[in-house]
Specification:
By secondary structure, the protein is an alpha+beta fold. The protein is built from 20 helices and 33 strands. It has four domains: 7-67, Ubiquitin-like (UB roll) (Roll), CATH 3.10.20; 72-232, 2-Layer Sandwich (Threonyl-tRNA Synthetase, Chain A, domain 2); 254-301 and 340-537, 2-Layer Sandwich (BirA Bifunctional Protein, domain 2), CATH 3.30.930; 551-642, Anticodon-binding domain (Rossmann fold, 3-Layer(aba) Sandwich), CATH 3.40.50. An eight-stranded mixed beta sheet has the order 16-20-21-28-25-24-22-23, sandwiched between helices. A five-stranded mixed beta sheet has the order 2-1-5-3-4. α5 runs antiparallel to α6, α8 (249-255) crosses α16 (527-538) and α13 (400-417) packs across α14 (440-456). The structure holds one RNA strand.
Length: 653
RNA sequence: GCUGGUGUAGCUCAGGGGUAGAGCAGCGGUUUUGUAAACCGCCGGUCGUAGGUUCGAAUCCUAUCACCAGCUCCA
């Protein structure tokens, strides 16, 4: 039975090897390690293919046993959950037709056509209940290979046009069905062994989604959900959702008076209120100082420009759909600036440039206007008018790599200040020629250079084909916020196309003209979007250097207003943003209001402070931190601001 | 842009065919206070906008605008 040609060798992640007889299943392999592992196993990954536990293994190779704690395990778990969602809907809404139902990063969804019936969030609890009931039936997921003809026949009889559409693209011999209970689905798999390992479901949302993502085809109803092997995990997840909701920048932005959206001013055109303006100006000043240190020169360019500029750059009509229509003036067409780069290119061309000047680094907090689809607009994070922390570096080819390194270093430094971990992605082109400008040779060169730089810096990175911009490949910085969400922010792009289009030249050592290379880069990307992320990252509890109001002076009664005024004057003269609360309120109320306004420091002033000349200091979210000689407190405060310290990192001893 | 949901006072929300309500905020007064809400009083809305149905519309219908969740898109 255990002859060598009837067996296969499995390589475990720790390098151990073990031989099993043919016909051994993933479950058996897991069980041979430990019964506990077998109990918790959801699927296996063998030779990079994720497979059902129950499937007999026919060839050996590296294996991973996927439990809930692995990415593949979760995917299997959620995919199976999607099938249960489908079965529940089939029971509750006979006649429903099914699109696709995959696992996603956080849970799963199923796209369904409910015919004339409209399914709304109000229906979700009933579906959830049905799903739980189905899970408890302890149904097994059964895999079956089906000839194409039979598969087509099945869905014809079931009258399911979407599955038939999917079948069109599948080859005979590769088609599998999965069945649990009364639900059979066209599905590649894999699935978990039995439905009852799913202990908790939560349906999160209902949304429309086009069949195959094509806005010309029918819109299906997409139900999003998530599921867990333990009820307590669902509870934790729901707490997390609440936390994200509490941090919503639209809510906090309003409460803290950071920005407003006014429909008379215009949808998607955010207005920075005084508090928000302080925050944004601090961010800009922080970056500007850093850029000056690194040899950038700041410029300012107008908000509208002649259409010819964008025709030259190629942005128009490439992005015509997402630009505001040109305005006609004096028989010329002008357009709201959709990007800053062409302006900077003209600055470069403004005079003859020598190799001695290069690299030239032009930076601008440049406001641009793009016509985003109305359904896309969202608070500060997706708007129609926004300011980029843009810069363009014009350099020789020899300087390119060093300049890219500088950009990466700047970006990493910037995000380290906010305690945001950065992941790096190289966004390259794919085979779709129409998406890109410039010749292939330049592209390949640029992609090679980016990769070399990343390697030389020893960066961990992933490569994303098809994510490049139309004029060149880029390095994208994906940051993680305080609650683990990922955001694509900064970018560094190499551009060989624009120098050609704008015929940019510099005079080299050989006294002849050469083309510079351009690097486009923006650490924050958009001040608006970055601010929205920052609000949620800090939950509105900004570091002192960014806080609109840094110190609240709280006199205990109006007998101490003079003391508040004295400190207000001193602190203001030191550049500290300070406010005195001289209302006729009790100290508890003043504290409460300052806490709610998320002011980092509160100074309580009363008789004791008048006599001793010290200050009694309270830190937002921490409470009373003690009494300090005023000079000592001022020193703590100024250090905290100068060093861009994060909240909660102070030691007041 | 598409689908669904929502739009009532500065904010958070209740009311759901008979002609607007609470808390907070604001204002006036009283209180002069020691680490997260003092007390009393007052002001405040043509119920997103425009049509329609009706004796009568915040409420029902239509259109439109905005916002929210997705989809699609993203230099």
């Amino acid at each position: 039975m255990s002859q060598s040609n009837d067996s296969f060798e499995i390589i475990f992640p720790d390098g151990n090897r073990k031989t099993y007889p043919k016909g051994t299943t993933g479950y058996d392999v897991a069980h041979s390690i430990s019964p506990g592992l077998a109990r918790n196993a959801l699927s296996i990954t063998l030779n990079d293919e994720v497979m059902d536990l129950s499937r007999p293994i026919s060839e050996g190779g590296p294996i991973k046993i996927n439990t809930w704690d692995t990415e593949d395990g979760k995917m299997t778990f959620w995919h199976s959950s999607a099938h249960i969602l489908a079965e529940a809907c089939q029971e509750l809404f006979p006649g429903v037709r099914f699109g696709i139902g995959p696992a996603i990063e956080q849970g799963f969804y199923y796209d369904m056509d409910f015919g004339d019936r409209t399914v709304t969030v109000d229906d979700l609890p009933a579906i959830e209940e049905k799903m739980t009931e189905i899970a408890r039936r302890k149904l097994e997921f059964e895999r079956k290979e089906i000839p194409k003809k039979e598969a087509v026949g099945y869905f014809k009889e079931k009258n399911d046009p979407y599955k038939l559409d999917l079948l069109k693209d599948l080859e005979d011999g590769t088609i599998t069905f999965y069945t649990q209970g009364n639900f059979t689905d066209l599905c590649r798999g894999p699935h978990i062994p039995r439905t009852d390992s799913i202990k908790a479901f939560k349906l999160l949302n209902v949304a429309g989604a086009y069949w195959r993502g094509d806005s010309d085809s029918k819109q299906l109803t997409r139900i999003y959900g998530i599921s867990f092997p333990k009820k307590s995990m669902l509870d934790d997840f729901l707490v997390m959702m609440e936390e994200a909701k509490k941090r919503d920048h639209k809510k906090l932005g309003k409460e803290l008076g950071l920005y407003m959206i006014d429909n008379m001013i215009g949808s998607g055109l955010p207005v920075w209120l005084p508090n928000g303006t302080i925050l944004r100006r601090r961010l800009e000043a922080f970056l500007r100082d850093e850029q000056i240190k690194r040899g950038y020169q700041e410029v300012i360019t107008p908000h509208i420009a002649n259409l010819r500029l964008y025709e030259t750059s190629g942005h128009y009509p490439y992005y015509a759909d997402s630009q505001y229509d040109p305005i006609e003036v004096d028989d010329e067409k002008y357009m709201l600036k959709p990007m800053n780069c062409p302006h900077h290119h003209r600055i470069f061309s403004n005079k003859m440039r020598s190799y001695r000047e290069l690299p030239i680094r032009l930076s601008e907090f440049g406001t641009v206007y793009r016509y985003e689809q109305s359904g896309e607009l969202n608070g500060l994070s997706r708007v129609r008018g926004f300011t980029q922390d843009d810069a363009h570096i014009y350099c020789t080819h020899d300087q390119l790599k060093d300049e890219i390194k500088n950009c990466i270093d700047l970006t990493q430094y910037v995000f380290s200040i906010f305690d945001m971990p950065v992941d790096i992605r190289l966004s390259f082109r794919d085979d779709n020629e129409e998406k890109y400008g410039g010749n292939l040779e330049y592209w390949e060169r640029a992609q090679k250079e980016l990769r070399e730089v990343a390697d030389e810096l020893g960066l961990d990175y992933t490569i994303a084909p098809g994510e490049a911009s139309f004029y060149g490949p880029k390095i994208d910085f994906i940051i993680r916020d305080a609650i683990g969400r990922k955001w694509q922010l900064g970018t560094v792009q190499v551009d060989y196309v624009m120098p050609e289009r704008f015929e940019l030249t510099y005079v080299g050592t050989d006294n002849s003209k050469h083309r510079p290379v351009i690097i486009h880069r923006a650490p924050f990307g958009s001040m608006e979007r970055f601010t929205s992320i920052l609000i949620e990252h800090f939950a509105g509890d900004f570091p002192v250097w960014l806080s609109p109001v840094q110190v609240a002076l709280l006199p205990i009664s109006d007998q101490y207003h003079d003391l508040a005024e004295k400190y207000e004057e001193i602190l203001s003269s030191k550049g500290i943003r300070v406010k005195s609360d001289k209302r006729s309120e009790q100290i508890g109320a003043k504290i409460r209001d300052s806490e709610n306004a998320k002011i980092p420091y509160m100074i309580i002033l009363g008789e004791r402070e008048r006599e001793s000349g010290s200050v009694s200091v309270r830190r937002h979210k921490q409470g009373d931190i003690g009494t300090f000689a005023f000079d000592k407190y001022l020193n703590i405060l100024e250090t905290e601001i100068r060093e861009y310290q994060l909240p909660g990192k102070q030691n007041y001893n």
